[in-house]
Specification:
21 helices, 692 residues, Serine Threonine Protein Phosphatase 5, Tetratricopeptide repeat, five-stranded antiparallel beta sheet, 4 domains, Immunoglobulin-like, alpha+beta, seven-stranded mixed beta sheet
């Protein structure tokens, strides 16, 4: 019998005598015995190896116990304990796919007792079925053997308990009897579960979509009925024929966390039919054909042969920047500090002076002017100077009105913090001949360099989308950066944000707070904005809404507060690709001037996209507070020039309001004001944040 053979093998290994001695055994014995009479000096390496060996033995013993604990939790149907063990140990540490002495795996016990929650937990952790069960007959024979052996063991122990007098050995036999009776009932339940089970029904909601020019994606749900047996894997088949003869390929999916599969390496322009079937311990169930029944690998660009918009742009800009650097390399302005020689005596005296004046060059108070402040935060802590002030340096004490163009220029500079020194060298040092704008920007570069030098770090982070101003004429440009490692800074230290807010003594009145007080009051909102603006969308196709409003010196765009680096949007589907057939249908729909064209034929990818778009438009209009009837009554339209592609994993279709309402002019009333949860960003700031 299989289990008896396995037990005999284990006993044989346990009783196996030591192997034959080698010819050098006598010499080794002499060395070992002679070592007894010498002082026992153990080398460091030998000691560490011995210690490591003991630790490894303890570790293996501990892991063996965890493996036994997992089997026990599955047998007792203790779902919480199973989750606890799977979280605490890796599948390798648990020996998740190593059979026990009965030739069973934890997943075998779970599925044959029809414990679906535990089986799903094990499957998601990477559990497999026993490789010994190559057929239904072998599984049935193995279960029958386990039942017979358990029954025989129960009868033997029962006879011993009845015939023997009460003593310590007898109580131990009773314990063994109870354990084997419980195991006998478990094996009978497993055998009955196997005998009553049938193959599963076909998977449901099998949907096929085009993933790219060489791949299609199939998604599906579990069968409505698994016929008293947990589904442990699925099979995806594809063919160029609706009869699946001949088949082109198949794939077995045994990782069931996400029920989808991408078929790659297909020929563009060829129709592929797909079907999916489910498997349980009784075998494969019937296949279910996909909807639509076939898909043709393609991409919307194939409609007119359009190349990606940004192809080669990053490389071209890098090349252009390299050329500019080469031109400026031998320029007079590239030789800094020649007009300001510093003697050794001056530097020494400056260093000595610094010893008696430990205060940094960060500012404590603001006067009328333009300033730069850098906010570094980690969890609930923020970097401050030794005077418990947020790091602030002066840009220009004569600048009382920040022009939007200067602020946008500063924001663009923040994309190349490492090039500040080079930018300073490229700006002429002779300030007398410079324009006012150039002088201001040169001072901005000086302030950035000063902040970088005082903090000892180049990257100052992301610029907040608007400066903080006060009635005294102070303007603060703010940079924000989250520190995720134990990074060291100079001249600053960490303090809790709440402590900084409560301990700071304001020098202004509540009616007219200074820019620094305003910053400190609203710092939590700014940190939240910074964290949200770094979030990324999950892969998929989205419907975005473009709404602009103009002011005297800028155009602003409507964005959600929760994701300010993206337009207002809703998700259409998880597949980001638009196929050629879908894009062709969208072009026809966009070219119709009168009412929308008829609904596409059923069971086509175009019809599925049509239904998805209807749902997405309703959801998006509700989000931005626009009555749905206005969308159909007015000229709301889809942007049909291109699909906006972001890195290949995220793509956007744009919904545009009527031409006259795309951008609201100053003084123009917007009858449909979005609900709370939105803000407007300067268009250039939004574009830079989107690139990040």
């Amino acid at each position: 019998k299989m289990t008896q053979q396995m037990r005999d093998l284990q006993l044989a290994q346990a009783r196996k005598p030591p192997g034959p001695s080698s010819p050098n055994a006598a010499k080794r014995l002499y060395r070992n015995l002679s070592g007894k009479f010498r002082v026992n000096y153990t080398s460091f390496d030998e000691g560490s190896l011995a210690g490591r060996g003991e630790k490894e033995k303890l570790r293996k013993s501990y892991l063996f116990q965890s493996n036994a604990a997992l089997f026990e939790a599955v047998e007792l149907q203790d779902l919480d304990r199973v989750h606890e063990l799977l979280k605490q140990y890796s599948p390798e540490e648990l020996d998740l796919n190593t059979p026990n002495s009965e030739g069973l795996l934890p997943l075998d016990i779970a599925i044959m007792t029809n414990n679906a929650p535990i089986a799903r937990a094990l499957l998601q952790a990477g559990a497999k079925e026993s490789p010994h069960f190559v057929s239904l007959e072998s599984r049935s024979l193995h279960l029958s053997t386990l039942v017979q052996e358990a029954e025989q063991r129960v009868n033997e122990l029962m006879a011993q308990v009845v015939n023997e007098a009460p003593n310590t050995d007898c109580s131990e036999k009773e314990k063994q009897l109870k354990a084997w009776e419980w195991r006998y009932r478990l094996y009978k339940r497993m055998k009955a579960g196997f005998e009553h089970a049938r193959v599963p029904d076909a998977p449901t909601n099998v949907h096929l979509s085009v993933a790219s020019s060489s791949s299609v994606q199939v998604t599906f749900w579990e069968p409505l009925s698994v016929n008293s047996a947990v589904v442990t894997k699925y099979k995806v088949e594809w063919s160029c024929s609706p009869t699946f003869s001949p088949p082109v390929g198949e794939a077995v999916i045994d990782k069931l966390k996400n029920l989808h599969f991408t078929i790659q390496g297909l020929v563009s322009g060829t129709a592929y039919y797909v079907q999916v079937s489910a498997y349980n311990m009784k075998g494969w169930g019937p296949p279910q054909a996909s909807v639509p029944p076939f898909a043709i690998p393609s991409n919307w660009r194939e409609y007119d042969g359009r190349a990606p918009r940004r192809r080669g742009q990053a490389e071209a800009l890098d090349h252009l920047l390299g050329q500019v650097k080469t031109v400026h390399q031998h320029c007079v302005c590239h030789e800094p500090c020649k007009n300001q020689p510093q003697s050794r005596k001056h530097s020494v005296s400056k260093s000595l002076k610094h010893l008696f004046h430990p205060g940094s060059k960060f500012l404590k108070t603001l006067k009328r002017g333009l300033y730069l402040t850098a906010i570094f935060y980690k969890d609930d802590n923020i970097l401050v100077t030794h005077e418990d002030q947020i790091p602030v340096v002066e840009i220009d004490d004569t600048y009382s009105c920040l022009l939007m163009q200067d602020f946008l220029w500063f924001t663009k500079v923040s994309c190349m913090w490492d090039e500040i020194l080079w930018l300073r060298q490229c700006v002429t040092v002779s300030q007398s001949s410079c324009s006012c704008i150039l002088q201001t920007r040169f001072k901005m570069l000086l302030a950035i360099s000063q902040m970088q030098g005082l903090l000892g770090i180049q990257d100052l982070g992301q610029v907040f989308f608007e400066p903080v101003k006060d009635k005294q004429g102070n303007i603060l440009i703010i940079t924000l950066k989250e520190v995720k490692t134990n990074q060291t800074f100079e001249s600053v230290r960490w303090v809790p944000i709440c402590k900084l807010q409560t301990s700071r003594k304001s020098v202004s009145s509540p009616e007219e707070p200074t820019a620094l007080d305003t910053l400190l009051i609203s710092i939590q909102d700014k940190l939240a904005y910074h964290q949200r603006s770094s979030h990324a969308l999950s892969p998929g196709l989205y419907l975005g809404y473009l709404k602009l409003c103009s002011a005297v010196d800028q155009i602003r765009v409507l964005v959600p507060e929760q994701l300010p680096n993206i337009l207002c949007h809703v998700k259409i589907r998880s597949n980001p690709n638009i196929s050629r057939e879908e894009w062709e249908w969208l072009q026809k729909m966009a070219s119709v001037e009168e009412p929308a064209p008829a609904e596409p034929e059923a069971e086509t990818s175009q019809n599925h996209l049509f239904q998805e778009l209807q749902v997405a438009i309703k959801e998006l209009m509700t989000l931005v507070n626009i009555p749905l009837q206005e969308v159909w009554a007015k000229d709301f339209r889809l942007y049909s020039q291109e699909v906006l592609d972001f890195g290949g994993q995220v793509s956007f279709l744009l919904l545009l309001p009527p031409s006259d309402d795309v951008c609201t002019a100053p003084g123009q009333n917007n009858p449909y004001t979005p609900r709370s949860g939105f803000l407007t960003l300067p268009l250039q700031i939004f574009e830079i944040g989107e690139e990040r």
